[in-house]
Amino acid sequence: MKKIIKNNLLLAFILSFILILSVPAWGDSTNDTNNQTNTSGSNTNITGGYTATTTNNNDGQTNTTTNTTTNTTTSNGSSIPVNSANSPSYSSMSQDVCSMGVSGSLSTLGFGASVGKHIRDLNCERIKLSKVLYDYGMKVAAVSILCQDERVFEAMQMAGTPCPFEGKIGKEALAQWNKYDIERPDYETYITKLESRSQIDKELEEIARQEEAKRLAEEKARKEAELETLKAQEELDNIIIETDLETKEQRIINIHN
């Protein structure tokens, strides 16, 4: 009986194993698509398709698995820039000139332009002319041409050596400059300075007036106090005199009595 049971169990195990092996296996995969875009210096377009198929036969059944891979690469090259526009150069290092170079350039897609020019340096010209006049022995003229610069003019005024005025120097030149101040090279600065000084003088005058008024008020109060003191002293002296008189009268009365 036990042997029959063992045989049945073994047969059931074998049948179960066969059934498990005979179950059909189905494979399904979707297509994978990868897109890749690269940017470099050239235009390139690469496409490719790859397909892999696998077939399995198990006990008369066929399982087929198909994998498809598609790669796409697109590269867009950047625009090639135009040549840069160079500004024209201007050098005065080895030339005895009083000018300054100015230049500029502009470049865009498909267009470029550059310009340049030189500008006179009037201060440099003034210094060179002054040196030439001094070398010729014209010292007053050399100083006069330097005085056309408002900085030099103001410095000469501050130093107490005013710039020449139509052949006049020293105090005579200063009087002429004060008379015809509109001809000063620093006229605008001079007018602004005068206005500022006038405002300061007014403020100082107001301060002085207030101090004088305060001094007068204090002086008046002091005199009034002195008068009050004198009055009080006079009243005290009168009281003393009256007291003395009354005392003398009382003594006389006492003597007669």
Tally of helical runs: 6
Strand order within the widest beta sheet: 1-3-2
Low-confidence parts: 21-48
Write the element-wise H/E pattern from the N-terminal end onward: HEEEEEHHHHH
Oligomer: single chain
Outline the biggest β-sheet. 3 strands, mixed
- Helix content class: 40-55%
DSSP strand tally: 5
Element layout with pairings:
Elements: H1 2-22, E1 32-38, E2 44-58, E3 61-75, E4 99-108, E5 111-120, H2 122-135, H3 139-146, H4 150-158, H5 170-179, H6 187-256
Parallel strand pairs: 1-3
Antiparallel strand pairs: 2-3, 4-5
Helix pairs in contact: 2-3
Task: Please characterize this protein's 3D structure.
This protein is 51% helix and 22% strand. The protein has 257 residues and is α+β, with helices and mostly antiparallel strands. The protein has a domain at 25-34 and 45-73. A three-stranded mixed sheet has the order 1-3-2, with no helix packed on it. Strands 4-5 form a two-stranded antiparallel sheet. Helix 2 runs antiparallel to helix 3. It starts with a helix and ends with a helix. The model is unreliable at 21-48 (pLDDT under 50).
